[in-house]
Task: inverse folding
């Protein structure tokens, strides 16, 4: 008797937790998006994998050339591969035309134009601001500390009812560091909107991804990309991990064929050989460590910040001057001197052996 009682009360407890989770998200979704009827595409109902069927439903050209059919709108094969690799259910994954599209979908699902706001933590990835401006969403900026960590209390105080999304980029671009797990967890527990953790650089990091904690936080969205460690910036494939509720909403507003057939094929090829990617990431990380040591010996270098990404943020004595001189030497880097907390900072992407050696040689020459 006792056991049955405990079991049933636990069951109803967990049911009420699920309902609570659902309603937290429901309350954040824009009113017009809640009941939207998504475009129903021909390929939603029948897919090409069932090749015995004759497809006369989508007005495609029947002459086969490899791409004459519309691509799978749900990118099932890529998601199954990712599900295996990342140890997360297919229904918790959404794919986009780069993470930039994923981020835009998140804005459109949760932010009412001319009413809601987002919170960003400069210096950080420039697209959050651009997307907010495109979507007519106000921006609250809370600068990082001088150690490039989030000011948790200030962020929570800055938030109001209209603060729908908070962007945490970790490892952060352009600073390269990861955010303190304690601070991120505090934010996840106390911020009442959606928290997006942008993990574009996670494969270069010694810190663990937040993916394994996804179930604990109904308001968490994690974005990753195939543009950096996976070496596929050209195919435009961004990945979003979140609760089923959030994924369903994003799915209902995404363009039906947002990931094209060539991208899908290339991505699957890449994910079938993911060990190669891990090897490359390891080489890039060890080259980053070597480059950091070399840069630190130069007089023109004032500080090389520690990095969990595939780039180094470097404070020099005169960023504008060195930036121009490097271009004259045929080397293009990113000048971040106008970003908050980044005065006189340049950002160096870790290249191949040749590129890294060229950079060091050029800087040694300028150091004289
Ligand atoms: C490079 C980068 C991305 C990747 O964007 P894609 O559209 O997937 O190429 C996302 N977030 C950050 C912080 C980045 O630096």
Result:
């Amino acid at each position: 008797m006792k056991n049955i009682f405990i079991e049933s009360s636990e069951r109803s407890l967990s049911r009420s937790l699920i309902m609570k989770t659902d309603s937290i998200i429901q309350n954040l979704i824009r009113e017009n998006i809640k009941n939207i009827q998504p475009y129903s595409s021909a390929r939603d109902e029948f897919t090409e994998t069932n090749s015995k069927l004759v497809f006369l439903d989508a007005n495609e050209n029947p002459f086969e050339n490899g791409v004459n059919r519309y691509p799978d709108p749900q990118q099932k094969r890529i998601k199954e591969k990712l599900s295996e690799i990342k140890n997360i259910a297919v229904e918790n994954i959404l794919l986009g035309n780069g993470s930039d599209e994923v981020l835009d979908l998140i804005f459109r699902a949760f932010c009412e134009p001319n009413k809601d706001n987002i919170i960003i933590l400069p210096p950080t990835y420039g697209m959050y601001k651009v997307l907010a401006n495109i979507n007519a969403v106000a921006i609250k900026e809370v600068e990082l500390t001088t150690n490039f960590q989030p000011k948790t209390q200030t962020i929570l105080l800055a938030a109001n009812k209209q603060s729908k999304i908070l962007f945490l980029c970790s490892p952060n671009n352009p600073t390269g560091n990861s955010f303190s797990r304690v601070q991120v967890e505090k934010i996840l527990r106390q911020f009442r909107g959606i928290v997006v953790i942008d993990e574009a650089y996670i494969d270069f990091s010694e810190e663990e991804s937040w993916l394994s904690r996804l179930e604990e936080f109904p308001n968490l969205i994690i974005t990753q990309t195939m543009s950096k460690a996976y070496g596929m910036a050209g195919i435009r494939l961004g990945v979003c991990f979140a609760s089923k509720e959030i994924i369903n909403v994003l799915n209902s507003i995404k363009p039906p064929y947002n990931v094209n057939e060539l991208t899908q094929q290339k991505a699957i090829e890449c994910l079938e050989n993911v060990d190669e990617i891990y090897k490359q990431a390891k080489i890039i990380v060890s080259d980053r460590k070597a480059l950091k040591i070399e840069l630190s010996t130069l007089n023109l270098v004032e500080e090389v910040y520690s990095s969990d990404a595939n780039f180094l943020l470097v404070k020099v004595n005169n960023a504008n001057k060195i930036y121009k001189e490097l271009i004259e030497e045929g080397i293009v880097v990113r000048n971040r001197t106008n970003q908050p907390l980044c005065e006189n900072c340049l950002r160096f992407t870790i290249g191949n052996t040749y590129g890294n050696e060229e950079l060091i040689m050029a800087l040694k020459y300028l150091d004289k």
Remarks:
- The longest helix spans residues 2-28.
- Residues 98-100, 125, 169, 173, 198, 200, 225, 227-228, 233, 238 surround pyridoxal-5'-phosphate (CB under 6 Å).
